[in-house]
Design brief:
With 879 residues, the chain is mostly beta strands. Helices cover 9% and strands 44% of the residues. It contains seven helices and 73 strands. The radius of gyration is 49 Å and the shape is elongated.
Length: 879
């Protein structure tokens, strides 16, 4: 039975392991005689030849993946096929209702070079049958030496209802550029001809179609580096242009890619179609304006210009166009236009950057640069609706009217800023951002703040209730003594304050490039204040100084305040060798620079001597208090400045202070010269005295010098001048001076004495330089104990505290006095027995650990024996 079971199991396993055999062998067969499967060029040539006498009407040719090259020998086999009474075509299609479809990656081409301009040699595919469909193939036209390339990749001749779907055409290279052949709908009645998902490097010509319709869906024309880009004929002008020609054409979507070889105004804009997207593949330079113009009763619809990050600029030969205008770009009577991802830049030969008339336009991620234009504005909105999206920047110049002009001109006009748009107004900040002309009609601006008087924009600054679109406009409007409040955010302005002393105060987060204050009058202007602003730039474009400065003052000023600012250099403009945070000329009568952060400059400050401006007296009473300097190569320069105060400042990786031309020092203390710059090309010092740099005394005490070798960071270049330096701080936090107590130790802090007894306290007291520090002694209750020179004398029973003072550092000794004859401990560290007076000693405890181990081992033995007994009994019972 056991063997039987084993046999059955083996048999079952064997039956599971036997593979299944498919007894039915199915072979695919063609059941529809109208479907022809083609796998090579020979079969394709045979199919083409089979069209004679209508033999291929209604067929579907299915081409498997691969390249099909029609040779001259193959072409000869069907050279008698006629289209419009002509023969000898490279790829003729005469059948009606023929479908050619590729499966996978299919390319059809020919290596035959007809080297002729005759009609039968002009085309690659010539279609004379109705209802032909070509789908999912790539057509690579044959090279024709006569054209140094090709002419037409597909021509429909006196037929209709052609469908080209998912068809790519391949460009041929030549010395003049790329060209892959055009599509020519050469028939009067096109029926329902459809071009869908087709790529070309030429154009579609349907000018002969008077009946039926040609529908274009998702046509892409790559005209970059094209042989016909910019091509002009004296006879025909610009007649070979990318796009679709003909009146019976419906373009649902078309994209044209162009570069700088293309003449955009003549080859693209002049006859632009509805639903067209123009994509730039390079920067474009224009000799005339790029004008997209519709008709009053037939506007251009759905036009998109996508710059792909490129720039359109006016050339050095920019001229007035056929419309008699010289604007760079214009949309006129265009519905639903889009201008995106492009920079438009004019020059002195052009007027407006972008002129929009009777148009609906969206501007997205665009810069309109009007810096050097002859006049006009970056954007003109006349009788139009314009929406701004993404990042939009308007750059004005000296000749700009404003950044944007909105004018209804008896109709309606609107400028709408999308909620997520970031709109900036740069360039000449004295120009208004958006100005609504006071004309008839209705003009509206949304998304920008109404600043009054027809001006819209972002509030950059205020004076009381008055709002201004730039800090400069507010400064220009401010009267002497008024406060200009700079709004939060970065304002790319170097503000100029001319002949007045105002208060320029920033809101939290306010940022400016820089400030230039100039007083050209003989009057001393009082109270100029610059407060709570983050400055990020330095320039000499406005000051015309040798160096680039962030804050620059020139002329007579009294009681200037520069406080609570950050001067952190990020950007420099102008051709200057050095950057300076604060520069003043002579003639400053009182100046407080307080609580500022100053970083990343060549020089932290430069105060010119009087010889730099002979008509102005020397400066005086300039104070730097509580500032932080970092990454500064050359320190604060005082030239011929009287009563200089430099206190409570911190210099990190920064050279400190310099004196020249007989300056006088009122106070130079409480500063932390933490470290010098890594770059020592301007020296390495905390204080520097040029020859005859200081008149009078210079007390350098009470500063932190960042080194123990203090003389190494004080550069004294004047032989007859000596400074004073008695005390200094030993750390950057400026808590301890070198003369302060550093070590203070007493050998007793608590004592007990009998009446009349004395005790001498041993003292160690040293300053930071290791010198002894004198100690003074006092008793809080001399009736209990007195002290003199560290000797304590017990007077009577009681308690008191003896205080030792080492230059302000104190220690206390608790003193207990007991009656004479009392038992006073002889060793304070060893307690005594109060009854016997003998020293307490711990009682020795016997070690019981060895006994415990013996007991443990015994218990283990007994337990083992018990287990053996139980096991033996169990074994006996089991027997």
């Amino acid at each position: 039975m056991r063997r039987l079971k084993l046999f059955l199991a083996l048999a079952l396993a064997a039956s599971v392991c036997v593979p299944t055999v498919n007894v039915t062998n199915v072979t695919a067969t063609t059941t529809n005689e109208n479907v022809v499967e083609i796998s090579n060029a020979t079969e394709l040539a045979a199919a083409i030849a089979s069209q004679a006498d209508g033999g291929a009407d209604g067929q579907t040719w299915v081409l498997s993946a691969g390249e099909y090259v029609l040779t001259k020998g193959m072409i000869d086999t069907y050279s008698s096929l006629k289209i419009n009474n002509a023969t000898g075509f490279v790829f003729p299609i005469t059948a009606n209702n023929l479908t050619i479809v590729g499966e996978g990656d299919v390319t059809i081409t020919s290596d035959y070079d007809p080297n002729t301009g005759n009609w039968n040699g002009q085309n690659f595919v010539t279609i004379g049958g109705n209802g032909v469909t070509i789908e999912n193939v790539t057509l690579k036209a044959n090279y024709n030496t006569y054209y140094d390339g090709t002419n037409k990749v597909v021509e429909l001749v006196n037929a209709k209802d052609l469908t080209l779907k998912d068809v790519d055409t391949v460009t041929l290279e030549s010395e003049s550029g790329k060209f892959g052949g055009s599509i020519y709908i050469n028939t009067k009645d096109a029926g329902n001809t459809v071009l869908e998902n087709v790529t070309l490097s030429a154009w579609v010509s349907a000018g002969t179609v008077t009946e039926g319709n040609v529908t274009v869906k998702n046509l892409t024309i790559d005209f970059t580096d094209n042989a016909y880009a910019g091509y002009y004929s004296d006879t025909y002008g610009y007649a070979w242009n990318p796009g679709v020609s003909g009146s019976n054409v419906n373009v649902e979507s078309m994209t044209i890619k162009v570069d700088d070889k293309t003449n955009l105004p003549q080859q693209i804009a002049k006859d632009v179609r509805d639903n067209t997207t123009i994509e730039l593949a390079s920067d474009i330079t224009l000799d005339e304006g790029l004008y997209f113009v519709g008709e009053d009763d037939n506007p251009v619809e759905n036009l998109t210009i996508n710059g792909n990050g490129h720039t359109i600029t006016a050339s050095d030969t920019f001229h007035t166009n056929s419309y008699g205008q010289n604007n760079l770009v214009k949309f006129d009577k265009v519905e639903n236009a889009v201008l995106e991802n492009v920079t438009l830049e004019t020059n002195e030969l052009a007027k407006h950057v972008l002129d929009v008339y009777d148009t609906t336009l969206t501007i997205e991620n665009v810069t309109l640069d009007h810096t050097t234009a002859q006049s006009g504005a970056p954007l003109i909105v006349n009788q139009s609706d314009v929406t701004l999206k993404g990042d939009v920047e308007f750059v004005t110049g000296a000749n700009s009217w404003y950044a944007v002009n909105v004018d209804a001109r008896d109709q309606e006009a609107s400028l709408n800023v999308d909620d997520n748009a970031v709109v900036t107004f740069g360039g000449d900040t004295t120009k208004l951002p958006v100005f609504v002309s006071n004309s008839t009609g209705t003009s509206t601006v949304t998304g920008l703040e109404d600043l009054g008087n027809g001006v819209y924009g972002e509030v950059a600054a205020t004076i009381g209730e008055n709002k201004y679109s730039s800090v400069q406009l507010a400064v220009d409007a401010a009267k002497d003594g008024e406060t200009v409040v700079v709004a939060s955010g970065r304002h790319e302005e170097e503000v100029k304050i001319l002949n007045k002393a105002i208060k320029l105060v920033g809101e939290e987060g306010a940022e400016l490039f820089g400030v230039v204050a100039v007083n050209t009058t003989d009057e001393e202007l009082e109270g100029l204040t610059i407060e709570n602003i983050h400055f990020y730039g330095a320039s000499n474009l406005v000051s015309l100084d040798t160096n680039a400065s962030t804050i620059y003052l020139q002329g007579k000023y009294k009681d200037v305040v520069i406080k609570d600012n950050e001067l952190i250099l990020e950007e420099t403009l102008g051709n200057a060798p050095y950057t300076v945070a604060i520069t003043t000329g002579a003639g400053i009568n009182g100046m407080l620079v307080e609580n500022n952060v100053i970083k990343n400059y060549t020089m932290s400050a430069y105060h010119n001597p009087d010889w730099a401006n002979p008509t102005v007296s020397a400066s005086n009473d300039i104070s730097y208090v509580g500032n932080s300097f970092e990454n500064i190569l050359s320190g604060i320069y005082f030239g011929g400045t009287e009563n200089v105060t430099v206190t409570d400042n911190t210099f990190t990786k920064a050279n400190g202070v310099r004196f020249a031309y007989g300056s006088t020092i009122a106070d130079l203390s409480e500063n932390a010269f933490v470290s010098r710059p890594d770059d020592t090309s301007f020296g390495s010092y905390a204080v520097r005295f040029y020859e005859d740099g200081v008149s009078g005394e210079a007390n350098l005490s009470d500063n932190y010098w960042g080194t123990t070798d203090i003389e190494s960071v004080i550069a004294n270049e004047s032989e007859d001048f000596e400074y004073t330096l008695d005390t200094y701080y030993v750390s950057a936090d400026r808590t301890d001076k070198n003369t302060d107590t550093n070590v203070f130790e007493l050998d007793s802090l608590e004592v007990e004495l009998q009446e009349g007894a004395t005790l001498t306290v041993n003292v160690t007291a040293k300053d930071h330089e290791g010198n002894p520090v004198p100690v003074t002694w006092t008793s809080q209750d001399e009736s209990v104990a007195t002290v003199k020179d560290g000797v304590i004398t017990a007077v009577k029973e009681g308690e008191t505290v003896i205080v030792a003072d080492a230059n302000g550092v104190t220690r206390e000794i608790k003193v207990t006095v007991v009656k004479a004859g009392s038992n006073v401990p002889t060793n304070p560290e060893t307690p005594t027995d109060p009854d016997t007076g003998s020293e307490d000693k711990p009682t020795e405890t016997p070690n019981t650990s060895d006994m415990s181990l013996i007991g443990c081992y015994g218990m283990m033995a007994l337990l083992s024996l018990a287990i053996l007994v139980v096991l033996n009994k169990k074994r006996a019972l089991s027997k």
